[in-house]
Amino acid sequence: MIANKFIRRFAPVCAGLACVLGSASAAANDLEISGEAGIQMRYFFEDALLPQQERTQASVYLQPEFFYSWNGGDDRLVIKPFARLDQIDSERTHLDIREMHWLHLASDWELLAGISKVFWGQTESLHLVDVINQTDAVESVDGEDKLGQPMVSFSYFTDFGRLSAFALPYFRERTFPGLDGRVVPPFLIDTDNPLYASSQEQTHLDYALRWQHTLGSWDLGLSYFDGTNREPYFAQRFDPETANLRLQPYYSQITQVGLDVLAVTGSWLLKFEGIYRQDDLENVPVSLNSVIEEDFFAAVAGFEYTQVGVFDSQYDLGVLMEYQFDERDDTAFVFGQNDLMMGLRVAFNDIDGTTVLFGMVQDLERSDSYSGFFESSSRITDQWRWSLDAYFFSSDVAADPLYFMRREDHIEFTLEYYF
Amino acid sequence: MKRIGHFLNTSRWCIAGLIIACLSFTTLADEQRGDEIAQARKTADTGWGDTEAEMRMILRNAQGQESERKMRVKSLEVIDDGDKALTIFDQPRDVSGTAFLSFSKAVGADDQWIYLPALKRVKRINSRNKSGPFMGSEFAFEDMTSFELEKYRFNYLRDETLDGAETYVVEQVPIDEYSGYTRQVVWVDKEHYYVRKIEFYDRKDSLLKTLELDDYRQYKDQYWRAHRSEMFNEQTGKSTVLIVDELVFDTGLSDDDFDENKLRNVR
Fold it and tell me: Model's pTM, two decimal places?
């Protein structure tokens, strides 16, 4: 469904692109084509909560990047489409334009127009401050994959840091796996019928401001966002067709102030992200009346300690710990109200660039509620890499959002090809 | 016994004093000589401005298997402090586009950032990693930073003929406690004051690595740059060859090109 929607939406754009690219490649050798592709296998350790869900899931993906520059590199065109074909989940089979923009660089300013991706923040376990791009939640459990965001952004570089302003004319809805897919609660997330606080829905004009600066061993960022909340709430509705619960994403209108700080001291990186968010409380679905707060505060704070060459080896060992705090209740389908992430990162420093990261996030209010993660990868040749990731979820209480993920423990093997 | 003890008592201080005087005299003289040679080495490589280089690193394990890295390095000389360097990786392909920005400091910890293109994320790096390997190679981060007088204490050891070239052999002891080395022994070319060879000694003071620099070429009628350097790990048998394929001076780089806030636009 989503794939179809995208194909319809982007077909004319793609045709235009083909023309631009055609003329570009004819023009000069300033066109660079690169990218990555891969095959992924997921294996689930337990039978799913729904009978139609499979225990194995295979998929392939492709993400080429076309880069064209002129004017001595000061003008650039980037086009980066993404496609995944999933064996069982039609929602995970999707097409996206990750990037498609023109960027102009001057010595003390830059202007970007088109679809792009922006990252803000410092912490590892949660990205509270990072609000420009929507999460492509069908892609991975860790939420690190993002959908391309249409924008016009202007940045000005001064001695006291980088100042950026963003106008975001089009909203991207979060993707969710379908009922055939996995790593999803056993309810239909009705992405075809989302609810919006604003009557303008996806065409509401959002804007954002950002200042970031380095002062010696401190990296600071201050941001402001006014617009459609990237993180949906879920309105529950009884679906007479399936005699089951149906979740409708509700996208509220928010204003959010964010602060992110990183300090380097000795072998320690100290990290902090905090947000204060106000909600307009417009067109709130009845079932969410008691859930959505007028305002709240949330923060993540922690450290990463790295020891180089542990036990006389060439390995680096990093210890990560982050505390997550959110004023909102569990019922808001929010993770990280009062949780602790602990992790270990091992960099083998070998020719193959092997790294391993594993750890867990423990709910400090419920000992039975935790999730675990294991991420590893290594190079096979100059162009091939493998990665092996695993995710575990545990919860015994139905009121805990993690409860619905309790059967979703899985291992994920990816063979990546870079060109 | 008593007599001997008495004799020792009276003469002990005289002899000890003499030895200390001799030792400190030669030590002082060797330190001064070492400082002078290091100073001359620094002076010979001051005022070069900025460079852009295309490099290859060939990593070899003990069994002789090879893997190649390709990168571009932009460097900016900073007078009276460590230099600024921006390294952009082109190969292996999975790290292509990754950029490493480093402001090396004459005294104290360097400032370092890495840009990860897949996440569009700029991450600060803990600069105490200086003894860690650079990209899985036999070069440590600290081997890649600029030579600054404030980083070491120097000690002249001897003159030596190395592969037919006259050299001064100077010991340099890192001042930073987070250095991976107790000391380095450096062969400095007498004519041009460039480095021909370095031996690195690990924290247990045993020989860890040997660096040999070859294929020196002169730029701007003044500055010498090695186009081939090989780091050999004496303890593991692994080695890394760093080859400079292209080097251009005065490309017009400025502080603006080494801004952590602009790292995401680096190509």
Answer: 0.87
